[in-house]
TrEMBL record:
Species in which this protein is naturally found: Nocardioides immobilis
Keyword set includes Hydrolase: yes
Keyword match Signal: no
A GO MF term: hydrolase activity
Cellular component GO terms held in the UniProt record: membrane
UniProt keyword list: Hydrolase
Protein name (record): Alpha/beta fold hydrolase
AB hydrolase-1 domain segment(s): 31-271
InterPro entries in alphabetical order: AB_hydrolase_1, AB_hydrolase_fold, AB_hydrolase_sf
């Protein structure tokens, strides 16, 4: 399938689960490829990945999951960080899939890594887009996460624009159309509540207290348990998860490779779309990765 995707309605599918309705987009021919979106105001799987579907769909049956709590799949009283892994497992089980390649943008990449640590056979290989790891040299949280907290605490259009501009290298990407599209979904009450459960000041403080008191190691300290081939893709100019974060997963995941894209912010799959798609397709179709 090589034709352009016209609208989300052309590809949208539904899967009933015990927790509610999961929605996902299906596009392309070939072996299955799972795509997991990131977080942030007005995000959806469609908005993260629909521009990549024509290229990826030539080689794969792309399955773009809409994670709970972002206004497309079912709402959740949990943080989407917590609800996300269960939704991924439910989708794969519902479709009868296992041992599939996965692409995860930011939060989606973290979810993929967490699941790969817990169940090494769930994914055949991983591709991440920023977000995975731990700040080594740069301040934490990064600028983009600070802007995100500012928005969820006081959701104004100005705060949304400032967050969007922190996501990209080229500010021209932040068009009026993009702002209005994101604003409409980001301020829907249930979606905004889910965002506050992730990035509100109180939620962040609670997470930090829990991490300090917990005996469990953070996921980034267990990345060495990921046995699948892994491609880390990163925008060199990422202001959400600065590129020094890649050092830890690149060094500790045994079969990890790192591809850094210049003049590129956090949305590498959009801002350097052709270069990112070429690197990802080459990796996923390599014999040593597929075998």
């Amino acid at each position: 399938m090589t034709s352009a995707v016209l609208s989300p309605g052309d590809t949208l599918r539904e899967l009933p689960t015990e927790r509610g309705m999961l929605r996902y987009h299906e596009y392309g021919d070939g072996p299955p490829l799972l795509l997991l979106h990131g977080s942030g105001p007005g995000v959806t799987g469609w908005r993260n990945f629909h521009q990549n579907l024509p290229a990826l769909g030539r080689s794969f049956r792309c399955l773009v999951l809409e994670l709970p709590g972002f206004g497309v799949s079912h709402d959740t009283d949990e943080s989407p960080f917590v609800a996300g892994p269960a939704a991924v497992v439910a989708l794969l089980e519902g479709l009868g899939l296992r041992g599939v390649p996965v692409v995860g943008n930011s939060m989606g990449g973290v979810i993929a890594c967490q699941l790969a640590i817990e169940d090494p056979g769930l994914f055949s290989c991983l591709v991440t887009v920023g977000g995975v790891g731990k700040n080594v040299f740069s301040p934490s949280p990064g600028e983009g996460l600070v802007r995100l907290t500012d928005f969820v605490e006081k959701p104004t259009r100005e705060a949304l624009v400032q967050w969007l501009q922190s996501m990209v290298f080229d500010p021209a990407i932040v068009t009026d159309e993009l702002v209005e599209e994101r604003w409409a979904q980001a301020t829907e009450p249930a979606t905004l509540d889910a965002s506050r459960r992730m990035y509100g000041a109180a939620a962040t403080a609670a997470r930090n207290r829990h991490a300090a008191a917990s005996d469990r190691a953070p996921y980034w300290a267990m990345l060495h348990k990921i046995t699948a081939p892994t491609l880390l893709t990163w925008g060199r100019d990422d202001r959400v998860s600065p590129v020094d974060m890649a050092l830890l997963p690149m060094r500790t995941i045994p079969r990890a490779e790192l591809h850094v894209l210049p003049q590129c912010g956090h949305w590498a799959m959009l801002e350097q779309r052709q270069a990112w798609e070429a690197a990802v397709v080459a990796f996923l179709t390599r014999e040593d990765v597929r075998s």
